[in-house]
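#struct-help
A.M.: can someone run this one for me? Single chain, 177 residues.
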Amino acid sequence: MIKIDAYDLASYVKSQRHGPLLTILDEVRDFVFIKDLEGRFLFSNRAHLAHLGRSESEVLGKNDFDLFPERLAESFYAAETHMFETQVPVVRMQESMDADGQKFYSTAIKLLVCDKHNNALGLVGTVHRIALENVFDVEQSKTHIMSILRLQAGVTASQLHAFEASLPGLLNGGRHK
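D.P.: on it. Structure tokens below:
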């Protein structure tokens, strides 16, 4: 969970748009985005915009159903809704699709953004594209996700075990052997 001293995430993001943190996030190669409680994008870094094949003005204010095929949008929406209800972060490996329609696998981490009274305001997400043909990248992604999961309040040992157990099936569904 990320806490900020604000009551409106959209206003907060807008006020920070040319500040150092969002400027740095704009340069990150992974996809980084911020959404409000309705799933509308408030920030999308350059890598995410390039992945979507859209400009900032075409993404901000839109939700996943406006930008992705229905099956993917439903999956993203379900995971985020669950996170808002349980306050448990979304940390998973997932199949996705780029602007050219090419499938790929990625690690997705979505954390709740709350005000100082723990009221949910939205989420911040990062997505790292995995090169399945590169065993090192796959193992590094798995290690990264497991370390993040272990540090998150509310994540149980059984959730850790279930996530780790699900990886071989997902990876075998890709090109990794």
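A.M.: thanks! The domain at 2-173 is CATH 3.30.450.20 (Beta-Lactamase).
D.P.: also worth noting: The chain has one domain: 2-173.
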